[in-house]
Amino acid sequence: MAADALAIIPGAVLRNLADKLYEKRKNAALEIEGIIKQLSTAGEHDKIAAVIGLLTSDFAMSPQANHRKQGGLIGLAAVTVGLTSEAAQHLELIVPPVLNAFLDQDSRVRYYACEALYNIAKVVRGDFIIYFNKIFDALCKLSADSDANVQSAAHLLDRLVKDIVTESDQFSIEEFIPLLRERMNVLNPYVRQFLVGWITVLDSVPDIDMLGFLPDFLDGLFNMLSDNSHEIRQQADAALSEFLQEIKNSPNVDYGRMAEILVRRAGSDDEFTRLTSITWINEFVKLGGEQLVPYYADILGAILPCISDEEEKIRVVARETNEELRAMKSDQTEGFDIGAILIIAERELNSEHEATRIEALHWFSTLLLRNRTEFLGYLEGIFEPLLNALSDPSDAVVLLVLEVHARIAEEPHHFHHLVSYLIHTFHNNHVLLERRGALIVRRLCVLLGAEKVYREFSTILEKEGDLDFASTMVQALNLILLTSAELAELRSLLKKSLVDSRGKDLFLSLYPSWCHSPMATISLCLLAQAYNHASSVIQSLGEEDINVKFLVQLDKLIRLLETPVFAYLRLQLLEPGKHTWLLKTLYGLLMLLPQQSAAFKILRTRLKTVPFSENLKRTSSANPYSQILQVTEDGNRNQDTPNYSAINFPFRLQQFESMQQQHRDHLKNQLQSRKSASTTVLTQEIQRYEESHSSSVPEISRPPSRASRVIS
């Protein structure tokens, strides 16, 4: 075949085709073009194939000088031009060697390959499409060529190929997409510009459905949003904006696959990428409908962190998306996975950002409200994290956690578990009790009912083994009871303890645990207007009961007596004859206070204002307390309330004394343990001293060595 070609092409032409001078090579190519035209007219395609073979093997693929390769490439282009409309049947011989030349190490060979393919493409146009993927792959590499001339030639060829593709009805997008998807991971900026350019062009062709294949290259486009080149970021953003607009106008979109990509990109370190992805997610939530239901958890996992993003635009879009998602009524839709959503919400409870934790809790509330049965099915796995969230440093978070717990606690066993855990947490974290105890208890009282909450606390604390903690906890609950506006109804109910069955039941429910603290017990009696019993409790106190802690609590009570909560009690002092046990109780408290204390002065000043009547004759000592004693000695005549016997107060006093005896014994054991520990430490120190001292004695008493005697 080579011999036939040599007979067809004159030797001088072949020599000029391999000449170093471009003009000679160009003239030789023109002569070959003329020869091919004649052969084509004569229909001698075998000879044409022979010429192509010669140009390929002896020139284009030659291992010799590069100008020979260049001549071969020019010759192949000339053959195509000479064939004109009949070139298509020889393309399988012409195109491969040209494509191969794109890989040549010599930039001039690559340049002439671009030029040759450009001329070939101009001739064959649509017939060129069958080689599109190979040409696209070659152009992709040439777009990042190190030689500027090669890049320019490649750009010219690229524009021509785009024109051919847009006007062709033979282009196969299905065959092209895998190649595009593979190339989208390239980081070279020139290649990225090349790829975005092609995506934009193909998307502009009405007959090519690029939107249907968007999931295949969407991740690559988002990856370009963080490119160092501003131009590439702009091009990628423009392409994405166009696709998003098409999605809004298209009835058939594969939201699912793209949602997975957007979720990943929403966690990008690049701010612009996060903003774009969260914007897309926002539109998807509005447009996706039931298609997105299986992806709700993943979407939520992307949205919640963005709610606390440093960039305000991202925060705004994330919040809007979160509200849209939570407002959707997709509970009964197939594919709705409440468990997956709860896992995400639980994970975000540990977020370092308060706003994210708050929104996670809103999701707990929403799911509990709409899907209570399903929610409770997952409670075992999430109850502990929800309980731990009560220790959150944010008050807003704690209040929301309590709302969730309040909804859960509609079942009695969950309510008991909640209160038990709170007591356990306060036991292990006294700082939390001091800082948040009042907030937590007050909010629970609002959400679940003060009476229910206090009854449960009392029931559990009555059996508390740690007596010191039980006393501290009761004192905290008592202070909340006396000071919180949320517990006003509970205080009103306790005031009726001697005349109303509900008040009586509440008093009896609280009393056993309140016995852990003498001052809490006295406060409870003052609230219940059980002044006779309050006086008895004061009289039962022993020397060891009146310590610093007791006096601190007594100081607080005296100051609380001056607040509006005890206004009724102060008004009762206007009728000392009717409320003599109240007076005796207050004087009893006065006697326990150190005279130099502020509380003593406050209470003494208050008692001086009591208007004693003429019936209460003062003794020679002018001491009103003596008159109180005289009056109260008269049996039932001066009982504070007519139904005082409705409660078995002698038994309650025994109960109080028994509990206080337990506290005294506990204190003694503590003191003995400390004393024993101190003795043990002292003994160990003495032993160590004696051992060190005894070990030095033999050194002194040991007889001198022979050597020392000799020296002496």
Write up what this structure looks like.
The chain has helices at residues 2-8, 11-17, 22-42, 45-60, 66-83, 91-101, 107-124, 132-142, 148-167, 173-183, 189-203, 214-224, 230-249, 255-265, 271-288, 296-306, 312-327, 338-348, 354-370, 372-377, 379-388, 395-408, 412-428, 430-448, 450-462, 467-483, 488-495, 501-514, 518-527, 531-540, 548-560, 567-572, 580-592, 598-608, 624-632, 649-701, 706-711. 73% of the residues lie in helices and 0% in strands. With 712 residues, the protein is mostly helical. The model is unreliable at 617-622, 631-639 and 696-712 (pLDDT under 50).
Rg result: 47 Å
Q: Describe the largest sheet.
A: none
Q: Which residues form runs of ≥5 with pLDDT under 50?
A: 617-622, 631-639, 696-712
N- to C-terminal distance: 123 Å
- β-strand amount: under 5%
Tally of alpha and pi helices:
37
Write down the overall geometry. Answer: rod-shaped
Q: How many β-strand stretches?
A: 0
